[in-house]
Each structure stands twice: as C-alpha cells, then as structure tokens.
Design a protein that fits this description.
Elements lengths: L1 H21 L4 E7 L5 E8 L5 E8 L9 E7 L2 E4 L8 E7 L5 E6 L8 E6 L2 E4 L10 E6 L5 E5 L7 E5 L5 E2 L9 E8 L8 E8 L8 E8 L2 E6 L9 E7 L5 E7 L2 E9 L3 E4 L11 E5 L5 E5 L2 E5 L4 E3 L6 H6 L9 E5 L5 E7 L2 E9 L6 H22 L2
Antiparallel strand pairs: 1-28, 2-3, 3-4, 4-5, 6-7, 7-8, 8-9, 10-11, 11-12, 12-13, 14-15, 15-16, 16-17, 18-19, 19-20, 20-21, 22-23, 23-24, 24-25, 26-27, 27-28
C-alpha cells in the first residue's frame, strides 16, 4: 500500500509537470537596484544554482555612462558594491560561481581603457596575471564552480589571446586548432569534471580567412587543452560567435554570414547545432547571451529580450507577471537585455522602470524541470501500468 501511495504521488507530480510544460513560463520580477535615483545598474551574470548574480552600477555624471562605476554582487539577500583598485574608477563583473566568487574587468574609463582582469574573493579584488607581452591588460569573463576563470589578454596585433586561469590563478595556455585558428577571447567555461576536465568556448580567428567569425571549443584534459573549430551547420551561415556555455556543455551564441549577424544558435556534442527560432521573420539582430543546463537560452533581438525553452521562443516582456507589467517594468527598449539564465531558470538582466535602468532578477513561478524529472515521470507511468495489470490478473 505504501508503494502505491508513493507511486501515485510521483505520477501526479509528473502529470502536473506536463501541464506546466504545456503553457508559457511566467516570471516574478525582483528589482536589484540601483538604490540611488542618480545611478543605473545592469545585471550581467548568474551562478549556475541561481544564488548569486553580478553586474555593474554606474553613478551618473553629465550622462548615464559618464560617472564612475562599481562591479556588483547580489546574493544572500543583499547587494555588495565590489571594490575597485586605487588606479581604477570603473569596474564590471560578468561571471560568478556558486561560492559567490565573481570575475570581471577593471578600467580607467567607462569605455574600458587599460583593462585589467580581476577576481573578487570574499569581497576583495585580486588581479589575474597575464603574459608580459599584454602589458598587464586583459579581461575576465566567466568562472566555474571549481574556480577556473576564462577571459583574454591584450595583444599588440589588436586581436587578443584567450586566457584560462586555474583556481590558484595560474595561467594555462589555450591551444590553436589543427587548421591554425586561435581563440582571441574565451567567453565561457563549463563545470569541471572529477579529474578537473572542462570545456571552454570563445571567439576566434582563422589566419587564412580573416573575413569569417570563428567559434572555437577547447577541451581541458589533464592540464592541457585541445581545440577544435565549431563549424556552422545552419544554412546561410559561415561563422559562429559562441557567447556562453552551460555547466553541462550547452553552447549558445550568434550565427554570422561574412561577419554579419543572421540569427542565434544552440549546440551540444549530443544534439549538434540548432538555430534558435527568431521572434518575427527577421533574425539578423538576434543575439543569444546565456544558456543553462536544460538547453534554455536568453538574449536580445531588435530592442526586445527573448527566452528560448528548447522548442519555442518567447518575448520576455510577455512572460512578466501582471504585477510587474502594471508597475511599468519593460525589457523592450534600447537598454533592456536578458543576459544569463541559471540551471533552475532564474534570469538576470536589465530592464527599465519610469525611464531608469535597473538590474533585475526574474524568478520562474513554476520550477524549470531537470532532465532527471522526465525519467522519473516516465518511470512512474510505467509502474502505474504494471500495477493496473497486476490488479486485472485473477
């Protein structure tokens, strides 16, 4: 009898999940700031478990981008302005892991002059070392839960070179592909495996054909990287720009034709490359920016923000709660953007309220199903069928 009760509970949970999946997702909006009416804030990254978010707050000068800025960390119920270094008045955080360790870039101007790659641990700024030829300049773009950081270092040819730092801050070289293509900036890193293995994605260049955008995937194995070109398999595209990778290896980014954007894609080793369904007939300005372990992606298109749930693409504005929409929150302007999505479906981005730019967190009103949940649902249905057969047996 107890087994039957557990089974029925699992089946009912699976049925409820099917109902939830049948409709569009919906989100409650949480305002992350700024706390001052004379500042603006942007939400740019989220930890894989959704506990932390990062971005930047700009203190307005004569224009919204003219004042100094602080990298921001949101988590544990509060907001922390991460410290700049004495020589830097501008900062932005782009990545954060489940331990609340954030990474980003310091600069001497709002335009990113003299960039320095930085990691904030327990609220303290630590510069990441770059090769001597970079003159101390670089960017940190992402961090995984093992503390590995990826980004780039500046180069005299103006292209930059992708960088990988281990948890101790030691730099590990990222190899070129077999055809000589090399990564100029690493944009994302997957979760680490039991032996420290991880997958890095980024933007690259083919020296023999500089007119194409080259996307690269680099596999870290036993302290060494092995890099391959991410070949576009979508009709009409001859280049890709990987922008993010999930903890388990889903990659998303931009499809290009002769360096012009023509849409967005999602890719994994298991599923290959798939074009994300655009909002409307024109996908030329669609830019996917974040992806989670369920293969859900977020980004922007034509001043709108979108969510792709693996099958369908939604205008994110239409998924906001009635309360958020009635209050006047909007993603559909020049500053709005959906930037990142956690494995449990929390979206971090930028929206406007009464003309002021805010960092925001969108919390799903229904839990995002994990792959294991589908298996559980099918198992429950199969077991129920078995019970039914047993009942009918004399």
């Amino acid at each position: 009898m107890q087994f039957k009760k557990v089974l029925m509970a699992a089946l009912m949970s699976g049925a409820a999940m099917q109902v939830a999946l049948a409709g569009a997702p919906s989100y409650t909006l949480v305002d992350l700031g700024p706390s001052s009416s004379s500042a603006v804030a942007q939400g740019l990254g989220v930890s894989s478990n959704g506990s932390y978010a990062v971005g930047t707050t700009v203190n307005q000068g004569p224009c919204w981008y003219c004042g100094d800025s602080n990298a921001m960390l949101w988590g544990n119920g509060g907001a922390t302005a991460l410290p700049n270094l004495p020589s830097n008045s501008f900062a932005i955080a782009r990545g954060v892991n489940n331990s609340g360790i954030a990474v980003g870039t310091l600069g001497t101007t709002a335009w990113g002059q003299d960039p320095q790659a930085v990691k904030w641990v327990n609220g303290q700024a630590q510069l990441l070392s770059v090769p001597a030829w970079a003159g101390g300049m670089g960017h940190a773009n992402a961090i995984n839960n093992a503390g590995m950081v990826v980004g780039d270092a500046s180069s005299s040819d103006g292209l930059g070179r992708a960088q990988l730092w281990d948890a101790s801050g030691q730099s590990i070289g990222i190899s070129a592909s077999s055809n000589g293509s090399f990564m100029t900036s690493a944009t994302g890193i997957s979760g680490a495996g039991p032996k420290g293995e991880a997958t890095i994605v980024g933007l690259g260049v083919d020296p023999s054909n500089a007119s194409l955008n080259v996307g690269l995937v680099s596999y870290l194995r036993q302290g060494q990287t092995f890099t391959q070109v991410l070949t576009p398999t979508i009709d009409g595209a001859n280049g890709v720009m990987p922008m993010a990778i999930s903890s388990n290896g889903f990659v998303t980014g931009v499809l290009t034709l002769n360096q012009g954007s023509i849409g967005s894609f999602i890719w994994s080793e298991a599923t290959g490359m798939k074009q994300i369904t655009p909002l409307g007939p024109d996908a030329s300005f669609m830019q996917a920016r974040g992806v989670n372990s369920q293969g859900w992606a977020v980004g922007t298109i034509f001043g709108n923000s979108f969510l792709y749930d693996g099958k369908q693409t939604y205008d994110l504005q239409t998924l906001l709660s009635a309360q958020a929409q009635a209050a006047g929150w909007t993603f559909n302007d020049s500053s709005g953007a959906a930037s990142a999505i956690s494995d449990n479906g929390i979206i971090i981005g930028t929206a406007s309220l009464n003309g002021q730019i805010h960092a925001v967190q969108l919390i799903p009103t229904q839990a995002v199903p994990e792959p294991a949940s589908y298996a559980l649902m099918l198992l429950g249905m199969s077991a129920l069928a078995l019970l039914k057969r047993r009942r009918s047996t004399p």
